[in-house]
Amino acid sequence: AALRALEERIVACRRCPRLVTWRQTVALAKRAAYRDWEYWAKPVPGFGDPAARLLLLGLAPAAHGGNRTGRIFTGDRSGDFLFAALHRAGLANQPTSLAPGDGLELRDCFVTAAVRCAPPHNKPTPAERDACLEWLVAELGQLERVRVIVALGAFAWDAALRADARVSGRPARPRPRFAHAAETQLPSGRVLLGCYHPSQQNVFTGRLTEAMIDAVLARARRLASD
Ligand code: DU
Ligand code: SF4
Fold first, then answer.
1. If we measure between CA atoms, which residue out of 86, 93, 94, 64 comes closest to residue 76?
2. Distance, CA 5 to ligand 1 centroid (Å)?
3. What is the CATH number for 196?
4. How many domains does one find in the chain?
5. Atom of ligand 2 at shortest distance to CA of 60?
6. Which domain holds residue 114?
7. From CA 14, how far away is CA 43, in angstroms rounded?
């Protein structure tokens, strides 16, 4: 219930003028394949199991993905790869995430992003990054059972460090560096795991393979249940 109230506050957020404009601009310049869609065009809250021990953290909603469907990682290539991996790991009831109402349920995991509005070129400004951190801190406050955070990419890794510093009152020192399969215990006691972002680019070039993300998720599941 508290998580639901938080969702409503996130969806109503208008703090970043550039992104308020951009999420709407993108919605008006629809992709041909989505011309019949009414785009969400608002901030995208996290999605998943409120009792999750595992949190997956992305960068921001995709312009024609989350910004279209209103659900994070839903309706874009990154999400296709991510949810298929969650399904193989036993963390999702189905391998696809098409749109709200498609029956997708996550078990023991919650998926969210460091920034909640689709940014131009997937690149939020430092001010936007800092403005949106509050929502991650608030979600972590509600998701009390989370023991492991999987950061999808360096931007998410830094956001997790910042959020954990806010939650615990102290930064991790020396600052842990992002790498694929990097692992560090945060001052809160939670564990942070790095994973290359499942972007179309990373997957297409083979920088991130199914076997690589499967190994990170297996490690995350083990740490979460230790
Ligand atoms: O201003 P900054 O040094 O980039 O730190 C911003 C943010 O990053 C801080 O609130 C926590 C996190 N952090 C950390 O976890 N460990 C460090 O050694 C330095 C910063
Ligand atoms: Fe609000 Fe975050 Fe969107 Fe900025 S990016 S308007 S802080 S939800």
1. 64
2. 29
3. 3.40.470.10
4. 1
5. 5
6. 2-225
7. 8
